[in-house]
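[READ THE FOLD]
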Amino acid sequence: MALNFIWLGFFLIAFVVALAKTFIWQDYTVFPAMTESLFAMAKVGTNLALGYIGGMALWLGIMRIGEKAGAVAVLARLVNPLFSRIFPEVPKGHPAQGSIVMNFSANLLGLDNAATPLGLKAMKELQELNPLKDTASNAQIMFLVLNTSGLTIIPVSVMILRAAAGAENPADIFIPILIATYCSSLFGLLVASLIQRINLLQWPILLWLGGMTTCITGMVFYFVSLSQDALEAQSALTAALFIFTIIASFLVLGAFRKVNVYEEFVEGAKEGFGVAVKIIPFLVAMLVAIGVFRASGSFEAITDSVSTVVTKAGADDRFVEALPVAIMKPLSGSGARGLAAEAMETHDVDSFVGKLACTFQGSTETTFYVLAVYFGSVGIRKTRYALLAGLSADAAGVVAAIVVAYAFFGQEAPNTAKSLPTPVPMSAEIPKTG
């Protein structure tokens, strides 16, 4: 129901704003721009869904081998002390636990497209446990909230974006992003647990959270100690090594247990094809609404209003210059990436605004996109509190990003002139989806 109102709101707000711009400010380009965006985003949505076919076929095929070989069950047993408490509806040893672990691992290492089919696999397996097939279960909501919180240890894509823009040190947003995403994930866990009445003050949960905090802190200090060239090389190596270690482990274990790995891979790949085709209508529906909302100029009205309020309150309003990235990110990853690039171009890549824009880009996730794709892939129409909890985690990530950015980069003198970045067209690049 929530997505229904949000989707309708995108169109109605865009229409009202466009009417005002046309008949009050005589801007006769807004409706043609909205119409063009409507059809362009429909095409982008279809292309994105079709582009998933190869990745889904690959990873669902590999996951099927892992299931048959028993590798996923081993992973599930390792994390059962934690997941059995935050996912109490999932039986011990259920395949969904392994898929959730694999999805979270891929997200932590910034393996954007590799994480998506694993997440869809987990959602499908959680749907098998769901008694109400059109309504999101608590386990599915907890999974999506943690997924959309965007926790990433190695923000490779953001560092590459800054390097391409000519940043003096593209990795200078490494620690701010890690801190912001961790705050987002922790807050999302707290919100979902509060609503589901899950007691987090249990020793297994506390030990896991403490262990994760220690590991993340250790990795931060290690990567920060590297030179830029070494950082990029070792980040790429870590991601590639992770992927091929998983693939090789599944294949070897499958062969050892006399699993016909080729046939099982093909069966899993067939499933991936079906999922990719099924999400097309849900993906198109969300992207056309986002495209129309952007083309109407509604984002500019939001940022102008926020800037006025902050300025009248006597606060430092430099963060408002980067705010469009934070607003866009829950809607579209590639759209936010374009706004971040525009902010770096307008204000300089190493300015406070440029660094904050990139911190926003890496600190939250494409919540609307993830909810539409993941719930759409299993036919969920009643999302309950999933959107509220996901956006709460996003808000925590945004606030944390602002605080951390001022702490790390806030010594720069405030700008006296305003130059809000203008929304740029979304590329057809597949955004990260959890």
